[in-house]
Amino acid sequence: MAETRTIGSVLLERLHGLGLKHIFGVPGDYVLTLYKLIEESPITQVGMTREDCAGFAADAYARIRGIGGVCVTYCVGGLNVVNAIACAYAERSPVVLLTGSPGMAERVRNPYLHHMVREFSTQKEVFEKVTVASVVLDDPLTAEREIDRALTALVRYKRPIYIEIPRDLVHAPIEGPSRVPAKAGQLSDQAALMEAVAEVREMLAAVEKPVLLVGAEVHRFRLQDDLSRLVERMNIPVVSTLLGKSVIREDHPLFVGVYGGLIGRDEVQEFVDGSDCLLMLGSILTDIEDLGAQSPFLAEGRAIHATADAITIKHHRYEGVYFEDFVRALIAAPMPTFHARRLPSRDPGKQEAPAAGSRVTLSGLFHQLESLLDEKMLVVADIGEALFAGADLRVHKSAEFLSPAYYTSMGFAVPASVGVGFADPSLRPIVLVGDGAFQMTGTELSTCFRYGQAPIVIVLNNRGYGTEREILDGPFNDVVGGGVGHRVATHGELVQALLAALRDKKQMHVLNVLLDPADRSPAMVRLAKRLAKRLSPGK
Ligand SMILES: Cc1ncc(C[n+]2csc(CCOP(=O)(O)OP(=O)(O)O)c2C)c(N)n1
Ligand SMILES: [Mg+2]
């Protein structure tokens, strides 16, 4: 007899089919049944220290593999991951958020159940704002269609989705034959697409010095290699946004640099300003690029701007033309070839290595890093100097640069490196993180240790929120270290450590009490027994 298809099994099968091999998260009783099912599936569950960290890991994983997953418990877990999912939404990273919730049978007469905030639907309502699809699989009749609807949105828009399963429906059978999930194929209006491509060709045929500005969406839609070929065919110089850094290999002879009105190098800015047409592909324009409506390119109709949200040429928009189809059609169409131009020098010139005894500096550090980076390393940069100084770091070949450069949420880098480690174990993550950001999520290093990962973590310790200090300083920007740590393995060490802590009123003391994993309080044993009974009432 064929195995029963259930809501949980169909969901995991679809995710695995899309290339999801790992799911990050923290378990909880509302999601334990799903965790068990994941354990029995070909997908590996990766335990993290916090849900927001699991979200960042899944985001980094998704940026590399094209889909990422995070599985958390109801509300206490889910609401803890909102910021990471918002980051994935803002920066277009296709992350699936899986969550459990109270069983349908438990909801009769609206009891107050632990972890509930307001209504049973509160968590879903929160996520509706930061995902492209949010579904609750509370009906075996519609569950499979709902799963496919959400996954189609994830694939099409490269943005996160929310999938909730009430815990008593994980094993609910789905009747009938398996649906064939719809393929995300060519979706665009063909006539409009051809007209748009012809207009680009005409526009480029009439100019001499165009520049291509590439952004992160080129990477999210896996178009980098094809686009590189177009760049070479056209001989068009390329700049990238900060978020799109490393989308086009930075040692490519036509790569000019990272463009950003607020952070870019002047030579790159001048080169772009001196061009006569700007072809922008997949670049989410933000205040960092500083390419607002006042930009002459936009105001004078000298720009083509294609993103997953809209295709705009000169002063008009094309309806019914999708980004991926548009870029693929541009790559396939005959396009003009441009004369070689002198590009601004990327080589900062020979820099003397600082004397071994001199104080370590940002410039010395980044220079040293640049000389060590190779294609098997991936730089993960957090916010602050890690990102800003990192913007000028030249990454090589396929070495990528991963950073939440637009949403700029601190605490991304260390957990993201865990995601990188699972997405492509052949890459060595180089984590650049400020001391402020490190103290937010540095705990995730214990996860690296647990799974035998080997990132190189560089904490840029400038004793505070350097970025904020530059804008407006005050004591709120200070981060200071100190305190005493005790490792407590025996009862004698416990007594000593407590006495020492009590004697010393000036400093904080942290006791790391090494318990036997089987050591349980009687109340915990009672609670666990009773909750386990609820999960499988027949036993
Ligand atoms: C989650 C989050 N909280 C607050 C901020 C605001 N913020 C931006 S940069 C910054 C300071 C970062 O300090 P650190 O990590 O030490 O890097 P530095 O600026 O010193 O290089 C802060 C607090 C933020 N971007 N993200
Ligand atoms: Mg700092």
Written description of the protein model:
By secondary structure, this protein is an alpha/beta fold. It has helices at residues 7-17, 32-40, 51-65, 82-90, 122-128, 143-157, 190-205, 216-220, 224-234, 266-273, 296-299, 323-332, 362-372, 385-391, 413-423, 435-441, 445-450, 466-471, 491-503, 522-535, and strands spanning 22-26, 44-47, 68-72, 95-101, 133-136, 161-166, 210-214, 238-240, 255-258, 277-281, 303-306, 311-313, 316-318, 377-381, 401-402, 428-434, 456-460, 484-488, 509-513. Strands 9-8-7-10-11-12-13 form a seven-stranded mixed beta sheet, with helices on both faces. Strands 2-1-3-4-6-5 form a six-stranded parallel beta sheet, sandwiched between helices. Strands 15-14-16-17 form a four-stranded parallel beta sheet, with helices on both faces. It is globular. The chain starts with 6 loop residues before the first helix and ends with a helix. 42% of the residues are buried. The structure holds thiamine diphosphate (TPP) and magnesium ion. Magnesium ion binds at residues 384, 434-436, 462, 464-466.
Mean pLDDT rating: 90
The number of helices is 20
Bound molecules: thiamine diphosphate, magnesium ion
Arrangement of strands in the largest sheet: 9-8-7-10-11-12-13
Please report the distance between the alpha carbons of the first and last residues. 26 Å
Q: How many E strands?
A: 19
Largest sheet: 7 strands, mixed
Radius of gyration: 26 Å
The stretches of 5 or more residues where confidence is low (pLDDT under 50) are none
Structural class: alpha/beta
- Indicate the percent of residues in helices: 25-40%
